[in-house]
Amino acid sequence: MAIYHFEAKVISRGKGQSAIASASYRSGEKLYSERYNKFNFYGRSVAPKTFILKPSNAPDWTLDRQKLWNEVEKIEKSKNARLARDFILALPSELNEEEQEELLLDYCQENFVNNGMVADIAIHRDKDGNPHAHIMTTNRPFKENGDWGTRQKKVYHYDEQGNKIYDKEKKTYQCSTEKTTDWDSKERLKQWRENWAIAINNSLEKKGLNITVTDKSFKEQGKKELPTKHLGSYAHQLELKGLPSENGDINREIKKYNQLLYKQEQLEKENEEKNQTNPFTRHFTPKEKRILSDLSKELNVFISFEKLEDKKRMLNNWKNSALAKQAMTNGQEQEPILSKIKDQKEAVEQAEILLNKEAQRFISAHYPKVNTNALSPYMARELVDKTIHNEQLFDLKETEQILFKSQQQELSHNLSLLLKDPYISVRVMKEKLNKQEAILKTFCAKHDIQLENKESVARQSDEVKKVFQGIIQPLARYEMAIKAVHYYHETTIKEHLPMIDSKQLNGLQKEQLCNAILYFGDQLEEKVVIDVLNDRQPMKYDTATKERLLTGLLEEGHTHLSEIEKQFFENPSMKVMFFNECVQTKDFSKAGKQTLKAVFDKNYTNVKDELNKEKNVEEKNYYRNNTNNFNLLKGLGTNLLFTILRGESEPERPAHKLKKKKHKNDRGYSPKM
């Protein structure tokens, strides 16, 4: 998996640094320093690939590395002068050397050279799997005639009449200094960092790889774990010899903290799954729970509840572990293939297969006493993942405890998948149910079987009966799954909208109301509920926000979306409902309409399919089935719905029709978001 690393520093005489020595170290060339009257040379086992790029107004001598940095040493006279900027950029290993060079040179030209800087570039490949570039850039601009320019200029202050303001005390005109470039600004550095991520993503996409990187920090990404510090060459050598380094000690403490954080997050996840499924599972027998659990595993691959990026990240964590390297070579070979798969369903299926294979290899290599054939994929994956995070193998007793606990957790985990995205679950199950019913209908017609007539089945051969049984069993499973999700809808509505009698709603109405609860979150208002139950599209966002979000979804890596927005759109249901809202928006600008179409065409064919299904539902007036002019509550009328939601009294209402529940705030509508 491609990594993002962008490090920016300043080479300064005040820190005892020399421009010539720095350039020699990075380029691997022997360079003479006129200032210090000595040669500098740092030999390397693999010679760096070097380039120098200059702006059009810079003199030709800047293409001579020794001349360039000696001239810098001359022009910067201060004892603590800033001599150059120094960048270290990791190159994506998914690209070949030629592609890496093209990516790097284009980036340096656009971001540094076109802004007036000379860029001295050295690509280092002396460490396996760690191709990176060092870039030294000049710190002072050039004039149009090729002479050195100034880094700052004097700006005089003027009065209202346009005259210079004279300071009598200082006996001089008032003035201030202004920098001639923005190279020192935080905004420019941020732009350079962001542009490097964009450049990498564009190169990976050009090669057909479904991989992205981000310039955002862990904090900006909403991650709680702490990043480790860069060791540097000297500290790295110390660590290899078994000697501690300052940053190495800091990194060990960071890893301990991240391990504790991981354990806490795993515990919270387990508790969340239990809390979500316990009220749900107690209504089913043990046999029904096992059936639903198996269905959840089937759904997990079919509709990719677990994000593909999570699977890739898990593979990458495993691959980079010292424990895993000897046992998991196949994953490293297949990961690039996985990255080329554009279809989400196919990619998820391949990721599942790959994760399961790698887990089997890891356990066979490090836990030979464990019978891998007796482990479910979930149990095997849990053991590997916990071992990787622990950074050492567990003993036999600890291993048994982990496997036993994971076996207990698997049911809650699988059932939570079924409930994680009920919007899609019901559609998948209905689709499977319809296909199975069509198979059953064809089979019955072929063998003259009438479902209401047991004798028509009894007279069939044993072989036909066996096939018939195999067709019937999935029907019961799919119906049970749909029933389970509908029960989940009822409990969700009861929790968040206790004054709505969900028993008076048909299945689709319950589903739409549940989706609104998830989609609107703490923005859920009475009007939204009324719109949903009256077959009107509720609007969560204003048009300007919708256009901004569409633009963010169109960008590679969604760099202009907040982390909360990214997480929101990772849920397939939320994405479908957002596009439903966009389709119903009439006042998009011309650019907004084009962006909407571009997002559909580029990335969201699956969403388009879902929207087409929604359109078919509307054409059939499915919302109106089993209702009488949207009189949803036992025929009492829409006006009553307004009354219930507002918590007002209704004199004409028959007392036996609705049981009103008292709320702590004495309002009928009190969602617990």
From TrEMBL:
Coiled coil residues, start to end: 250-277
Composition skew (Basic residues), residue ranges: 656-665
The MobA/MobL protein domain, residue ranges: 17-239
A Pfam family matched in the record: MobA_MobL
Keyword Translocase: no
Region described as Disordered: 651-673
Domain Nicking enzyme C-terminal middle helical: 283-392
NCBIfam families named in the record: MobQ
Family stated for the protein in its record: Belongs to the MobA/MobL family.
Stated name of the protein: MobA/MobL family protein
Organism: Lactococcus lactis
